[in-house]
């Protein structure tokens, strides 16, 4: 039997000795204020046993990790119809790149790049009466945690500097792949990205994806086929133009965010979340990537 606590403690000790921690995402002013020396890791297994090390209970801005939750909610609302508006192919491009969007006539490559996530946000706005409130309630439900909330300061900070996202939304609108007003869609999108959660909360929320679509409250939110597809998308598209590297080094489906968080999972075995705010040149947590590679190497638990 694997001693997960010992493995996490070893990873934490290695992280504390690492000098090169990457660069914080300072293009979002609020994120620039975060202490680069923070590092946390939390793992939950199928039996809902929890293991942690470092700053695993400190909350941070989950940013693009939220795209997994909006995708889950959208699939629950409209099912396979979603794939007529967003594709399922890796982009090979940075998360905010727009050239492919124009070339492919307004159909984003996948739901995890920004244009794809903006389309998913548009779907939610079209089908929910109070989108921000209902989405927050959905995340709290699958997390079994009523304390999760938006950070309105981060949302406002993103709105002030989100010129690429405004460009993407207007381009989508020009190709008639946005049903709602650009401002309304982006207000929702900036709020979803501003969700603040800890490693412990993230790992427990992602329990859904290792447990065949059933959350900690034992409610079923996805079919087994939908879980398979979301996990496949996390493997192929969860790290933008570094998805291949993550699969090669770590060997798990996962999703990163520019707030420094990464969640990765092994279906039917465990889910793990890391946080270290310093990013590598591809926009993924530098220490988080190293920590997860060490985890799967030490435990010999990858999907390959």
TrEMBL record:
Domain of life: Bacteria
Binding-site positions, substrate: 64, 114, 158, 165, 189, 240, 258
InterPro entries the record matches: Beta-lactam/transpept-like, Glutaminase
Recorded catalytic activity of this chain's protein: L-glutamine + H2O = L-glutamate + NH4(+)
Alphabetically ordered keywords of this record: Acetylation, Hydrolase
Signal sequence residues: none
E.C. code: 3.5.1.2
Record-linked PANTHER family: GLUTAMINASE
NCBIfam families tied to this protein: Gln_ase, PRK00971.1-2
Record note on quaternary structure: Homotetramer.
Family: Belongs to the glutaminase family.
Identification of the protein by name: Glutaminase
Species of the source: Maribacter sedimenticola
């Amino acid at each position: 039997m694997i001693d997960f606590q010992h493995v996490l403690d070893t990873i934490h000790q290695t992280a504390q000795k690492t000098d090169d921690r990457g660069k914080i995402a300072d293009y979002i002013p609020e994120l620039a204020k975060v202490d680069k020396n923070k590092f946390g890791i939390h793992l939950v297994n199928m039996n809902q046993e929890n293991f942690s090390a470092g700053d695993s209970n400190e909350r941070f801005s989950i940013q693009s990790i939220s795209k997994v939750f909006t995708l889950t909610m959208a699939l629950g609302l409209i099912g396979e119809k979603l794939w007529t508006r967003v594709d399922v192919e890796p982009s090979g491009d940075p998360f905010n790149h727009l050239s492919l969007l124009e070339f492919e006539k307004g159909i984003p490559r996948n739901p995890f790049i920004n244009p794809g996530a903006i389309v998913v946000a548009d779907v939610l706005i079209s089908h929910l009466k109070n989108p921000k409130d209902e989405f927050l309630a959905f995340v709290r439900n699958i997390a079994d945690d009523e304390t999760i909330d938006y950070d309105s300061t981060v949302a406002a900070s993103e709105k002030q500097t989100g010129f690429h996202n405004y460009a993407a939304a207007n381009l989508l609108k020009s190709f008639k792949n946005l049903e709602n007003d650009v401002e309304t869609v982006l207000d929702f999108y900036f709020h979803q990205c501003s969700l603040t959660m800890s490693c412990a909360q993230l790992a427990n929320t992602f329990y859904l994806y290792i447990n065949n679509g059933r959350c900690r409250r034992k409610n079923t939110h996805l079919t087994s086929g939908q879980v398979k597809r979301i996990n496949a998308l996390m493997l192929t598209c969860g790290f933008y133009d570094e998805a291949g590297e993550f699969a090669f080094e770590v060997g798990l489906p996962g999703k990163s965010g520019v707030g420094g968080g990464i969640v990765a999972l092994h279906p039917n075995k465990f889910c793990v979340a890391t946080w270290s705010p310093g990013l590598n040149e591809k926009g993924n947590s530098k220490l988080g990537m190293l920590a997860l590679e060490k985890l799967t190497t030490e435990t010999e638990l990858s999907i390959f």
